[in-house]
Amino acid sequence: MQSTVPPALPLPEARERLVLWLLALTQFTVIMDFMVMMPLAPQLMRAFAIEPAAVSGAVSAYAWCAGISGLLASMYIDRFDRKRLLLAMFALFTLSNLACAVAPNFHVLVLSRAFAGLTGGVLASIIMAIIGDLIPAHRRGAATGIVMTSFSLAAVAGVPTGVMLAAHYGWASPFYLLVLFSLLIWFGAWRVLPSLDGHLGRRVPLAQVLPDLIGLYKVGGHLKAFLLSGVNMMTGMMVIPFISPVLVSNIGVQPAEITFVYLAGGVATLFTARMLGRWSDRVGAHKVYRYVALFSILPLMFMTHMPQIPLYAVILFFPFFMTALSGRNIPMQALMTTVPDPAKRGAFLSANSAIQQIGSGVGALVGGLWLHTDAAGHISGYSLNGWIAAGLTLFSVLWIGQVGGAATVAPAGERQAA
Fold this sequence. Notes:
This protein has 418 residues and is mainly α.
């Protein structure tokens, strides 16, 4: 299939890697902003006298607003230079973190989280569109692996540092740290990212934007991909937002010790993210997703049925959980860049990001519906989340065979054709 958009000029290898790592750092701030709310849950529950379901509501507010903004972004993301749009949204995202840091009560914090979702929700789709513009299809698995290292960086450096700061200086301190990080990364992106406007030559008239958006949801291949994305994200978010409260309330882990749990998981994914990306390029995104997703059922079930075990056992287990849950996203994200026509890649990825955020919001919201704190201070109902997550994972393993694009990810025999 021939591209309808002229490819971006190839960057020198060193510049390409620098761009990818800057995109990873940008994604790092978005992921840390989203993830840090979860280990902060015990402190937020004490500070604002709220239940676990209220914390999941704050997570859902971010996810729902990120989904809405991603959906709206699909109407305009392909009408602007990728670099300029990234810098504008990143600046607004930085302001949203400042609003979170100065929030005087939980209601204002939830509104600030909603603002963070509206701004941060667009960044992931812009980043994936940039990868689609700059990187040939046969190398997008490896490129996605580098950018997905942001998840590991957030888990290794961002979240543990934020939790430790919160334990000593209050729950708002991680958000101040994010503001500082974001300013530094924004300046680096402004200096290093190339202008990406090759897609503008195919820009459609404004009156055609809404029909084109509706048209995205009329393509059978798009709908199959959207369903996979939504279910995949819902699976993880049935479990992840409640890990810290459960570890603290049910297992007896101290809030400050959550730092070491996330650190162990982050270190593992720091090494496995790029390995999984290269593996996806070599044997195929479909196969790698199936293998990793099937494996992820084991840590999902153990996490939601965890017996009383010492802290060191939790720390030893968490790398398997983090590697499996984050590892599923690498081949899936690489596969998503191959689904749409290149002229509609930005709009499709923005709409897909919206579906992922909505899936996250649904997972976090539904997962908290039946959780409650009993008289002994323990959180009950968590095991049901594991069974539902396992069932959704099995569905996604079967469904991914329905998802494909014009370019396949990782066929080793086709690399020379690029």
